[in-house]
Amino acid sequence: MGEQVTVYEAAGGTPFFAGLVERFYARVAEDELLRPMYPNDLSGAKERLTLFLVQYWGGPTAYSDQRGHPRLRMRHNPFVVDTAARDAWLRAMLDALEEVPPPEPVRSTMIEYFVRSADFMRNTPDPEPTGQPSL
Q1: Surface-to-core class of residue 76, CB atoms within 10 Å of its CB (0-12 exposed, 13-18 middle, 19+ buried)
Q2: Tens of pLDDT, residues 57-98
Q3: Which CATH number fits domain 7-120: 3.30.1490.10, 1.20.120.1200, 3.40.50.1260, 1.10.490.10?
């Protein structure tokens, strides 16, 4: 009987997640919608996201040890996260993932999580369309 392998282990451990986060933040730094949501120095955000993803996927619990419960919605509440922001974040994360994809089924599992999480973070309704009302 084989041991269960975590997504963390199957993906390649902390080096995989640190690389994913580096690639993600390289995209954030160039994105006109996302960049203003982050501080000038991205190093703290990179560290926190790496620790969170490592822990979420079955690695060491340094994130919770340092910061407590993730409380993702509360931590993102100060920012306008509408459909456009969700889509921009998701595009940056999925592009970063696809640049150096983990093996299946890890890749698909991570994509499903990122899609659900991005949608869960939405906290602002989309603006009403402008122009003539339709009849």
Answers
A1: middle
A2: 999 999 888 877 766 655 656 667 889 999 999 999 999 999
A3: 1.10.490.10
